[in-house]
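Chain A, query sequence.
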Amino acid sequence: MSGSIRQQKFSKLVLKELSDIFQQDKRGFLGNAFITISDVLVSPDLGIARVYVSMMLVQDKQAVLDKINAHKSEIRKALGDKIRKQVRVIPDLVFFIDELQEQATKMDALIESLKIPSESTKKGE
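Chain A, predicted structure.
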């Protein structure tokens, strides 16, 4: 995590509140998709928040991201309602798909599939 302490505190606040907003999903625009906010990075002026969204068990992640982007103004308004008294600026939200978990799963599978000879076969050669 980079940035100033102020940015880090602000990003933690935005992450917590956005997580609550997505968990409640009052309008139901996400459907049955299980979505978590994995990280939030904030610009130095706190005007833009890059939100990384992790989607487990979702087939068409881009479609879900498009739904989130279609409701971006509603999400920002809900965020503003929650943090209005704590901050001066409600950041513009930019959503990205976080594929870190999938990449880690692929790496684990790749490592498991490696055929490494044991020590006894190396000595026998």
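The helical segments are 5-24, 61-70, 72-83, 100-113, 119-124. The CA atoms of residues 53 and 76 lie 15 Å apart.
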